[in-house]
């Protein structure tokens, strides 16, 4: 008997209409993925990062293409890969900074079953990781959020953190480029029906933030250490942190230390390589332990917690598997016969 194998292709419009940007669902997907990681029912090999330029830091200006594989069991039962290219210079050409293709593989045959635009999935899952982190690591009743970098990533950071911390009242968005800060404040303010204060100088933030998020493409520190005060959750999504900021933290939490170290970027890795930080003193090396209650998250309103999520392929696979199953139900997308 002759056997055939088909692959489903989903465009950016398809994945959006199928819920790739549904943050509430993504928060549930990501929380469960961390739980499964801790139970050994999900895994991700470290990402292969193909940076352009001569040093790791050159990527911030010259771009990169990264491969992030992963498998998630539980209700997801899916394997796959995010293959993501990003280049800051794209903005000048009227293109987004980053674009991803997510490929899903059947965990039984291991064959590819779908290829889809992965850009919205990637940004949504990155926001959701911080949203889940805020649930376990932010102060209860937190009021002030300071976001630095008015790019795409901080839109989903805001959405996810706001869902996890609905008591937030004061939200600041800082960008070196005034129009970006203003446009972010206007667009996200309308989307979430909240008021945001746009700033070009982080020092102009006139409240003590309960949560700070850095998501920039900067090679130099974007937040002064003294702005992170007792009680703060600092989330280091991308860009550069002050090299001493982590030292203020009562607890350092990472999504997965092996992945963070393998990636080779960020102040924690630099401190370990310089012999200033013993990795054994990192309070939580696998965030799933906090999600599963094996380690306490925040214990007092005074703790400073430094959270560094490097991102893992299984997070993309979890969200993409939901989109794929909905596509089958809704009969969306285009089929291609592989053989
Ligand atoms: N951890 C993860 O899982 C993960 C996933 C995706 C992206 N990222 C990282 O998130 C970061 C942001 O991505 P993006 O797509 O939003 O980038 P982007 O280029 O769209 O936006 C970055 C913004 O930061 C601003 N900026 C640069 N230096 C600044 C400074 N000193 N102060 C204030 N603003 C400054 C820029 O003007 C720009 O508007 C990148 O570093 C990316 O690698 C992390």
How would you sum up this structure, described in words?
By secondary structure, the chain is of the alpha/beta class. It has 2 domains: 6-122 and 314-337, 2-Layer Sandwich (ornithine cyclodeaminase, domain 1); 130-312, NAD(P)-binding Rossmann-like Domain (Rossmann fold), CATH 3.40.50. 32% of the residues lie in helices and 24% in strands. The chain contains 10 helices and 15 strands. Strands 1, 2, 3, 4, 5, 6, 7 and 15 form an 8-stranded mixed beta sheet that branches. Strand 8 (144-148), helix 5 (152-164) and strand 9 form a beta-alpha-beta unit. The longest helix is centred in the middle third of the chain and has 19 residues, at 119-137. The radius of gyration is 20 Å and the shape is globular. The two termini are 14 Å apart. The model has no long low-confidence stretch (mean pLDDT 96). The structure holds nicotinamide-adenine-dinucleotide. Residues 88, 97-98, 126, 148-154, 174-177, 180, 215-218, 222, 237-239, 309-311 line the site of nicotinamide-adenine-dinucleotide.
Summarize the structure.
With 339 residues, this protein is an alpha/beta fold.
């Amino acid at each position: 008997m002759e056997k055939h194998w088909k692959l489903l292709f989903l465009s950016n419009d398809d994945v959006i209409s199928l819920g790739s940007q549904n943050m509430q669902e993504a928060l549930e997907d990501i929380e469960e993925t961390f739980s499964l990681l801790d139970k050994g029912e999900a895994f991700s090999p470290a990402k292969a990062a193909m940076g352009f330029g001569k040093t790791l830091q050159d990527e911030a200006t010259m771009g990169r293409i990264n491969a992030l594989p992963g498998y998630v069991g539980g209700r997801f039962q899916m394997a796959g890969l995010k293959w993501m290219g990003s280049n800051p210079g794209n903005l000048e050409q009227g293109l987004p900074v980053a674009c991803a293709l997510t490929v899903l593989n059947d965990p039984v045959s291991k064959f590819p079953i779908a290829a889809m635009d992965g850009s919205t999935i990637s940004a949504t899952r990155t926001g959701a990781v911080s949203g889940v982190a805020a649930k376990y690591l932010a102060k209860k009743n937190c009021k002030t959020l300071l976001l630095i970098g008015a790019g795409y990533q901080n839109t989903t950071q805001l959405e996810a953190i706001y869902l996890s911390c609905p008591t937030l009242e004061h939200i600041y968005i800082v960008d070196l480029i005034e129009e970006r800060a203003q446009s972010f404040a206007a667009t996200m303010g309308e989307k979430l029906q909240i008021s945001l204060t746009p700033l070009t100088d982080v020092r102009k933030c006139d409240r003590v933030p309960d949560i700070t998020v850095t998501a920039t493409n900067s090679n130099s520190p974007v937040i002064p250490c003294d702005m992170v005060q007792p009680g703060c959750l600092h989330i280091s999504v991308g860009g550069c942190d002050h090299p001493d900021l982590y030292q203020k933290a009562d607890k350092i939490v990472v999504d997965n230390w092996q992945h963070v170290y393998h990636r080779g970027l960020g102040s924690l890795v630099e401190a370990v390589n310089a012999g200033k930080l013993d990795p054994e003193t990192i309070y939580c090396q696998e965030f799933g332990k906090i999600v599963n209650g094996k380690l306490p998250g925040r214990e007092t309103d005074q703790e400073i917690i430094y959270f560094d999520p490097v991102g893992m392929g299984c997070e993309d696979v979890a969200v993409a598997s939901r989109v794929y199953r909905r596509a089958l139900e809704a009969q969306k997308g285009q089929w291609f016969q592989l053989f």
